[in-house]
S4 RNA-binding domain-containing protein (Nippostrongylus brasiliensis), 124 residues
Amino acid sequence: MYAGPLIRATASRWLNVAPCRAAFHTTGCGMSQEVGDDGLPKDYKLKTLKAGSRRLDTFVNRASGKSSVQVEKLILGGRVRVNDDVHTKKSYNVQKQDSIDVWIGPFPENSELAEVERYEVRLN
């Protein structure tokens, strides 16, 4: 029986100018984020989703709740990264252990900070 992929979703803030490979660590990139007792960010959410396809656009659509048109604009605009690499092909097949970062936009108070949603894929 296919149980569907597990996607870990987190909204995070980080400096978009700092070379950082781990968005959720509180050291090394000049970031500060509230972390709970379990070591995960306080806004961490675990979602279990069923997806009929492993395409990047389908995963981002299902995980974020954004429309297909919004997801397409994000992907084609280079605002979606898979394992820290920009993917502009919406037909990319998501692999097990992929980390997908969706750049939402800069904060109005500080244009050097950006809001990012991260989805970690676990295929069952």
Strands lie at 6-15, 45-48, 80-82, 85-86, 99-106, 113-122. Helices lie at 56-64, 68-76.
